[in-house]
Design goal:
homodimer; alpha/beta; Glutaconate Coenzyme A-transferase; 2 domains; nine-stranded mixed beta sheet; seven-stranded parallel beta sheet; 15 helices; 23% strand; globular
């Protein structure tokens, strides 16, 4: 790819054009002002839809053909079935069999179960992916094998891109655990219940054609109608949309690693000492083993001091549901359920609220609630001395993770990254991150097993914690400590080709991912 | 007004231009095909909104000024507070005091409590109303006193008009019984709880600026968020948004009139004989005394024959809630609550579902559920021998009622109008209705106290009921019977001026309302 590159406001070289479309370089947090209107989908009419509301067609192939599947289209899917998704691969198998070329796949995330997509990238059915490119797909991209350029967006950025018309979805194929023939659908009921369908909201609202695929068809009305049939063109009944055991993935147990438990305990203590754990506070923890441990430490402090949180931002799991049921948190505002307790709670408890990237994360709205969360716990593959962090590439340069809601959550009031000082003897704190996923100005605290660094911009936190017994150091001290143990890290070798770009929450380009030279 | 008139497909003369904008004449049910895109609101950015989500401003005047209130703007309100609304009059008082001129008021309905609006129509603050013009407002319009031309739309047509950009709302002022400072709001909680805010959905989604006015402000998150704060610009706290006793209006008692009870009984019997009351059926009854009596007869039949309805379309009230709680209906799909039992049930019962004109009525969507309702009971001021019906004007020519969901409900499978043969010795069945609100092809059955007429288009119903003991007659026979008793009706005298138009569900003009000569 020989496109013009420019240096963006954070010093990264990014292309001015991606897959033939103009792009805008990152200009700083809150600096880019959109001066245009939302994408305007075509107006439909009831005259073109059956009076009895029955939109069932024979199978997915029929639905795709009726939806006008053709070369170059953008096809979207959601990832609420996670590693148990059975629909995405089928779409591209059908397209491949029909000889369709150059599709864009626009998933809200991809998983190891999507390995078969490699075949369709190789045979030209898919031109490129705009969405997370994990594991084998990331490796394929990193080695320069994808025809088009990958585009990674946060969950909020995905909503923004669709709302703003940066991505125009031709056909959305939305797997649903339960649906009626009109296309109303939800994720809380049916044998493959996965909780909610919030990641599919933008797709349903803005796609030209919307196909619901379900394995549990009931008579109208399918309530709650998380997806409105009024946006849906076709409904397909299949034997199985997802493998329930794999839907419920992610680490669901509290870590037993002494180092990680230490980080979790320090994180909780720091929040307590800084006065962040107080009546009416809010937090987001996430699903990893360390995060679960932190939530557990929070629960202990809250029980002991009789503190109640106003809300917790989920990814929900049994620990968070327990806190809700015990009255430690008043609401769970949930973006995705990580286990069956989360699904049950969302179905039965009106205070366990399903959210979407629109309510929680869309930066091109009139606010979103990510910025009111008091304590936000996130991970990173690398952090640099300017507090910039990377969640997409590993230090060997390979693109191996999506962004998820990570960038969006950076807008929380106190963003804490509990990360080990090194992984496999490779330092995690660096002079410069391999890829900037999020700018340092939004990252407040780094907690490692060997010390805590507070962003100098947060004078208030430094002041509050000045008499703390916690091992508070500078980020440079942490970096040196890591390098003392592991040595200076060896940098990977990159080619010139840009294989993917990382979008910021406002649709601008914050960094480029280059081809890895093996 | 000297605009060009054309004859539409139902033979009515309608203007080709209304208030300076081109309009399309009615072309027949399902004949008009929109070939354009939805209205595209401006893209907002979180950078322009407070990180803590606090959008509170001092008062409504401040909010209106911040929203940029100026001459010629379109200001919208919803009518969930019905005759207890305390917000709409305030808006125009403020605008009048500020010397603003030529506003368009776009309410989802108006009520007697809006009589003070007359002053602002008279002093030039308001140019015209697009919405129901009832009672004194209707009389004012009918006598040719409104500067601009009135435009009446159904609830679904109002959503369509906003979605399609026919009406571009500059400022939506949305009264809410409960809200948080971010603007999330609902109608089921708070001292002025009115049930739901569905009529305000289009306004929140598409208006340039959105102001929430509440008398019950709580901390984030206000759950359920029937209105999403992500669409809201400003929040105003007032002492009182509505008078609770007047919010709950409408006839809420079963009729005691022997004639009306007879109509109700005949309607129920007819539905039973035609096989419409069967397991899994659906119905919409409404809130009048006759409708309540019909629902009561339905309930008796259902109990006796052990029949359960899949869903009832509300307007909900205590009778319908009782049927839900007794298991006679599985779901209430509710558009507005008519009493406190409706509010309580919607708040507490997940099978009592709040709907919006988007899910229920919007004709420019991919279907809507109004067309799947088996039995639809509606009223009319007049019906003609072609089954065309009028709900807007009285036989004296005066515009006295809005359309409500009436046009939208005509798409139900069996539309029944139980109406008296005459009112105040004026025949209700006529050669031609004063105003066509709905075309006869969608109206199936007229039930009067003196006989039933079935639309000849419904050969299936005529066949099913051919051996019935019910007094089935032709519509002409009913008309003659009325005229035998009351004499030929005297027709009102009209001027040339078109004072208002009636829009069909697709935005085309089905009829004009002319100035009445007193």
């Amino acid at each position: 790819m020989s496109v013009k590159l420019v240096k963006n406001s954070i010093g990264r070289m990014v292309p001015t054009e991606i897959n033939g479309k103009k792009s805008v370089p990152f200009q700083g947090v809150g600096k880019y002002h959109p001066d245009y209107r939302k994408f305007a989908p075509k107006v439909a009419t009831c005259a073109d839809f059956p009076d009895d509301g029955n939109k069932l067609v024979d199978d997915l192939k029929t639905a795709l053909i009726k939806a006008g599947l053709k070369d170059g289209m953008t096809i979207s899917t959601h990832h609420h079935f996670r590693n148990g998704d059975l629909v995405a691969n089928q779409i591209f198998k059908i397209a491949s069999d029909l000889g369709i070329k150059d599709l864009v796949w626009y998933p809200s995330a991809s998983f190891p179960c999507h390995e078969p997509i490699l075949e369709y990238l190789e045979n030209g059915t898919i031109n490129h992916i705009e969405g997370s490119m994990n594991g084998v797909l990331g490796r394929f991209v990193s080695e320069g094998n994808m025809k088009g350029t990958g585009v990674l967006r946060s969950h909020g950025g995905r909503y923004q891109a669709v709302q703003d018309g940066d991505v125009q979805i031709d056909i959305a194929v939305l797997a649903a655990p339960i649906a009626d023939p009109f296309g109303n659908a939800n994720g809380v009921k049916g044998p493959s219940a996965c909780g909610l369908l919030g990641f599919a909201l933008a797709d349903s609202q803005y796609a030209d054609k919307v196909i619901i695929v379900t394995d549990h068809l009931i008579d109208f009305p399918c309530i709650p109608w998380q997806i409105h049939g009024n946006y849906v063109d076709y409904v397909v009944k299949v034997d199985k949309v997802g493998i329930p055991e794999k839907i419920i993935s992610g680490t669901t147990r509290i870590t037993k690693s002494p180092d990680r438990l230490l980080m979790a305990e320090m994180t909780a203590k720091l929040c307590q000492e800084a006065g962040l754990i107080k009546d009416g506070f809010s937090f987001q923890a996430g699903a990893g083993g360390t995060s679960l441990a932190i939530a557990d430490f929070f629960a202990k402090i809250m029980r002991k001091e009789n503190i109640k949180a106003k809300f917790a931002r989920g990814g929900s799991n049994k620990y968070l549901v327990q806190m809700l049921e015990d009255g430690l948190v008043e609401y769970i505002l949930d973006g995705q359920t990580f286990d069956l307790d989360g699904v049950r709670s969302m179905r039965d408890n009106p205070n366990h609220v399903d959210t979407s990237p629109f309510t929680s994360y869309n930066y091109h709205g009139k606010g979103n609630f990510a910025s009111f969360i008091d304590i936000v716990i996130l991970g990173a593959t690398e952090v640099d001395v300017n507090f910039n962090a990377n969640v997409n590439t590993h230090s060997d340069g390979y693109l191996l993770h999506g962004i998820g809601g990570w960038q969006n959550c950076l807008f929380g009031r106190n963003v804490i990254l509990p990360i080990p000082l090194f992984r496999d003897r490779i330092p995690v704190i660096r002079d410069e991150v391999t890829t900037v996923t999020g700018p340092g100005e939004l990252i407040d605290i780094i907690v490692t097993e060997r010390g805590i660094a507070i962003n100098p911009l947060r004078k208030d936190l430094l002041e509050k914690l000045k008499d703390s017994n916690l091992p508070i150091k500078t980020i440079e001290e942490l970096k040196e400590e890591a390098e003392k143990i592991c040595g200076k890290p060896v940098l990977p070798e990159f080619g010139d080709d840009i294989v993917a770009v990382i979008k910021w929450v406002d649709g601008t380009i914050i960094d480029s991912v280059r081809k890895v030279i093996k």
